Fold this protein.
Amino acid sequence: MYRFALECKIGTYGGTGEFCAECGEPEETGYVCDVDNLYLPRSYVGWWNILQDVTDESQSLYCDSEMNQNATRRAECPSMWPCMPGSSCLGNNTCEERYSDESVRCSACAKGYFKLNGSCEECPDQPWLIPVTVLMVGACGAFIAHKLDKKQVNLGIITIGVDYFQVLAIFSSANVDWPPALKSVYNYLSAFNLNIDLVAPECWQAADFTYDQKWTVIELMPLTLFGFAMIAYVAKYLWKVMKGRKARLHSHAPKLFGSTVTIFYYTYLYVTTKTLSVFNCQSTIPR
């Protein structure tokens, strides 16, 4: 009696005696099948291999039909998922140095890096300088705006410039392979959108900020600004009362209200973009 076993050739994968599944072009499918008798394929650059349970109906949907036929011989099958961004995955389920190998599809930043507009950037040597700088720039901007208002300078001219830079900054979050220099410019311009990612909260010592937490902070930004405005209004009112004033106790309300609306105007584009970002789903369905 003669016995023989069939083996899968290059371009396919499957164990000895199993049905062979086609790998296709690695750039399109993510499967790398470059040797004979390959039990599990490797993931290509920009792809991540997630093993699916062939006995679980919901997971077996992502398996090749040949692998489902091999369910009696194996418990798991490979499925390739694209990484976002694609440059984060180097292939064979390894991540580029800026991304954590412990995260699925290199979705998290490695230690010493923070997420900025979808990509991981290196943390500065002195991360505490970032929020301090932001506060100083904000204070200077408020002082300049106050001086211009006192001189009755129309702030509409400044508003046009801010609007222009805010729209340009939106391009940094687009899924486009921008040149590094242009990407840096877009990231810097996102300061006009009050981008919380520029503060690099992940780089702060003993800080562990998740996407959900940052999203919540951004959503609460309008309410926080309104709260500060109300505190300023009440403080000014009480100061006038303590000074013994009887008239024009609320004279500061119109200007304070106008300043608050202006700040809302500058932040609405960023807040709206982040609010709707959770619905901006991009297809990551595997082969």
User: Anything to note?
Assistant: The two ends are 41 Å apart (CA to CA).
